[in-house]
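for the writeup, i need someone to sanity check this before i put it in the appendix. the sequnce is what the collaborator sent (i think, or maybe the updated version? ugh). structure was predicted straight from it, no edits. if anything looks off just tell me and ill rerun, i have time this weekend
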Amino acid sequence: MAYSNKLKAGDAFPSLTATLLDGSSVTLGKPRKDATWQAVFVYRGKHCPLCTKYLNEIESYKQAFADAGVDILAVSGDSKSQLEQHSEKLDVSFPLAYGLTEEQMKTLGVYISLPRSEQETDHNFAEPGLFVVNEKGQLHVVDISNNPFVRPELGALTRGLAWIRDPNNHYPIRGTLDY
C-alpha cells in the first residue's frame, strides 16, 4: 500500500511557487491586493474539458470570492505552451499558473494520475484540489478528489466562505482532531 501525504486542516500551508504566463513567480496561498485569504484551485490541465468548464465557472463567482475577502489562483502541472493553448478556451481574469511539479503535487497531497495516452497529455497530472488558506497561512478549507467529476459547488463554497469569514460567527477550522 502506498503512503499518501495529505495536508491536514489547520496545518501551515507549504511554501510552493509556480509560474504565471508573464513569467513571474507566484507563491501559492499568498493572497494579492486587498484579500487576506486565498483559494488555490489545482486543476488537471488543458486536456481536461471539465477543468475548462470549471475554471470558466469560477470566473462567474469571482465577485463573490472578492466580497468574502478571498483571492483566487488556479494552478496545474501543464507547461507554458499548454497553458497558452488552454487560455484560448478560457475566459478568466484571475491568475493561472503552470509548472506544478510532481513533488509539489505530493506535498499538497493531491491525487496524481498517469496520462491514458500521449494524445491526452505528456506528463503525470494532478487531480482536482482546493486549498483555502487563511490570513495566518493555515489551511482553513481543503477538498481533494481523485477524478474530475467531483469538485466543490461554487455557490455553496462562496456562501460558506462568506459565512466563515463573518467575525460574528466565530467559526473555527473544522476537521482538526487527530486520530
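The longest helix spans residues 49-60. Strands lie at 17-20, 25-27, 37-42, 70-75, 96-98, 112-113, 125-126, 129-133, 139-144.
thx in advance!!
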